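Hi R.,

Here's the chain you asked about this morning:
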Amino acid sequence: MSRAELKQWAKKKIKGHIWEILIPLIVAGILSSLTIGQKIIVEDGTWKVNGGINLSIFFYFVEVGLTYFMVKFIKDQDHEFKDLFKFINDYVRIFIVGILEGIFIFLWALLLIVPGIIKAIAYSMVTLLLADDKYKDLGYTEVLKKSEEMMKGHKMDFFILGLSFIGWHLLAIFTLGLLEIWIAPYYNTAKYKFLSDIKDNYEKLNGLSQEEKVPEKKDNFCPKCGTQIPEGSENCPSCG
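And the predicted structure, written out as tokens:
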């Protein structure tokens, strides 16, 4: 599916489901931006945010729940608001993976901003893996490595997909942000569809590659006399 086809598919998909998607997005967004100890000060006539500790990492399990919700929506499976909190029982594992993800992105960003962005994109599959029971036995760093493996060859396409929505966000300025009510479900549906398709294709191709490594060996017998025909030979050694 091309980028244009993907975006067209997302537009059709969200029709009649805007608020159904928007409410979980808003809740997840609020929990991901909570801070404590933050102060707003006025300095030289300018409003500034001073200090504060971001609590987003403590609610990373909600991001995993949002991913679970969106993938089910995309695949026409039963989904509901409480899916956001489905993974609270897996809190420790998700928390540690989130911490490691943040540390690695930060370390790469110390080199230059571009390597940090590339690493962040490479980890785009992390929440999909954490939300899938098939990968629950992966170790903390193995989840990150699997995401990098799945995103190999797709990072630029994902980056360009995000850039293609900049025009919509700029247009939203002229509506005082009201257009974001439509843009947020539109973008997230396209984003999760893109990632979900990559994951599904990876799993399909990986399964096929495993079968191709160990092909089934079949004996070849002559249909006339029943003698086994040696491998590489087209004619029966007995009757020709």
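The beta strands are 35-36, 39-43, 46-50, 53-54.

Let me know if you need anything else.
M.
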